[in-house]
Amino acid sequence: MRAARAARTAAANQQKAGFTVHEQASSRTTASSDSWWASAAIYQLYVRSFADGNGDGIGDLAGVRARLPYLGKLGIDAIWFNPWYPSPMADAGYDISDYRSIDPVFGTLDEADALIGEAHALGIRIIVDIVPNHGSDRHPWFTAALAAGPGSAERSRFWFRPGRGADGALPPNDWQSIFGGPAWTRVTSPDGTPGEWYLHLFAPEQPDYNWSSPEVRQEFEDVLRFWFSRGVDGIRIDSAALLCKDPLLPDVAADAAPGPSHPFSDRDDVHEVYQAWRAIADSFPGRMLIGEVWLPDASRLARYVGPGELNTVFNFPYLDCPWDAPALRRVIGQTLALNAPLGVPATWVLSNHDVDRVVSRYGRPDTSFALDRRPYFHSLPVDLQLGTRRARAAALLTMALPGSVYVYQGEELGLWEVQDIPDELRQDPIWARTGGGDPGRDGARVPLPWSGTEPPLGFSPAGAAAEPWLPQPKDWRELTAAAETANPDSMLRLYREALRIRRAAAAFADTPLSWRDSPDGVLAFDRGEGGDGIRCVANLSAAGVPLAPHAAVLLASGPLDDGLLPPDTTVWLRVGSGGAGPAGRAQPCEQQDQGYR
Ligand code: NOJ
Ligand code: CA
């Protein structure tokens, strides 16, 4: 944080002194070797849906560059970009055909270099997404494997096997694709006869790499160096627990738990990969690795982080947790207990591009989430007003926790899950591969509303040739960045203020959390001590609760009710009397006005 602050000040001074962004870009530096990620606020940017610079209805790097000042003003420390590489887009870029370039629909490598430099000049770091479990069926390695035939070195980079049964007509084992259907697809030999099968834990267009192959290991290590050398500050690792497979490819028992005896999930040898990657990351100053690891067993999850392993992992138990005080307290406690002994910062995540948006989740009678139960969640009624109120409260609860926080684009605008996308416009392979049984993830990926009152709501420039790649709800006219900037009660203004205080307050720097006694349904904890300390109180109960004596209200997610903290509301309090404010100055009542009015 301190480093981020220093970088921001340095960047501001450089701009005052007349540096141009391109001078910054060409230096390809990162700001410091500090562990900046330990308490950073990281914005997840899904390029396809962020901002369209050239009017083709798809977000691109030109759109991102034009909106960097928005992100600077939001107050984030880093951006995680979902994959931006050349891809046939069978899974929105998670099927990569070239790991060292940019898809033409998004822009060019030169533009990416410029963007990295411009972001750095604003004190914003860059994390890119690497997909090591699988590539694209158009990747030159895979087309070479198809051409080379059975038993070839080219095929050994993937999992090709003959089929079972008469004429090899059955898949080599019973593994199922995470996107639905079998995890195996049969190829056709050059003479037109059916050939071997290849493994894909996701869509058929995403063949799994064979991580027993030294060539595969070498290639990805080079890819890491490629992006670190260009100045990126971190790597997000996709499907990080799935890379290594049992080479015997046995059937998987229906109830097999991830772990050393599972044929493809959380096998022990995957750690060799990350140990090598950590050594590479550490050879560049200030670089980090964050893993996408969905594992139910906390002790297994812990094996992915710490010295010599990944720097952090996403906190999916927190994301999945219902809006329920005991459940949240349990997850928060378990997270801190898991990370602290390893010296690893916690991460806090409310949403991402794979899950339902929080405003909708919290507006349902069941506020939990699970990837494999989306059809059930979409069958529930949604109260958007209630969901928004809870999402505001959850934002302040989350941002008060020690560690880093991830903000998925649009979360800061309070966007909801778009559940009524016409079937013929749905793009997610999950929708097609489950025969429409699972609506998929499109509803969380609808292009952002920036301004105006009619679609494309500023997402594409005026007079754009194409409509946004997914339709935007008309009602999002009230949730545009422009409308919310002008509205002091908006979600955007709440996020900006919360991020500002979070960055400035000494109590939020690297202090531990201490729980306070609180009534049922209420979470209360302190960060920091004495005049600088901040207390966070979140009321998840059905009744208003009195607030203990305090010196000032720094920020509230909703209006207080005659001294009571209403249901589904979170407040940040200055507890010590006459303490210094978030910026280190005395903090009189005016600060109270910056909360909800
Ligand atoms: C996890 C990513 O977040 C998701 O979007 C993607 O479809 C799968 N991994 C496969 O790459
Ligand atoms: Ca575009």
Biggest sheet record:
8 strands, parallel
Q: What ligand molecules are bound, each kind once? A: 1-deoxynojirimycin, calcium ion
Strand content: 5-15%
Q: Radius of gyration over alpha carbons?
A: 24 Å
Distance between the termini: 29 Å
Shape: globular
Note poorly predicted spans.
Answer: 1-33, 578-597
Strand order of the largest sheet: 9-8-7-3-2-1-11-10
The percentage helix is 25-40%
Features:
597 residues; alpha/beta; eight-stranded parallel beta sheet; 16 helices; 18 strands; 27% helix; disordered N terminus; disordered C terminus; binds 1-deoxynojirimycin; binds calcium ion
Compact summary:
The chain is an alpha/beta fold. The chain is 27% helix and 13% strand.
Question: What would you note in describing this structure?
Answer:
- Helix content is 27%, strand content 13%.
- The chain is an alpha/beta fold.
- The protein has an eight-stranded parallel β-sheet.
- Helix 7 (270-282) links the parallel strand 7 (234-237) and strand 8.
- Helix 2 crosses helix 4 (109-121), helix 3 (61-74) packs parallel to helix 4 and helix 13 packs parallel to helix 16.
- It starts with a helix and ends in a 23-residue tail after the last strand.
- The model is unreliable at 1-33 and 578-597 (pLDDT under 50).
- Calcium ion is lined by residues 52-54, 56, 58, 60.
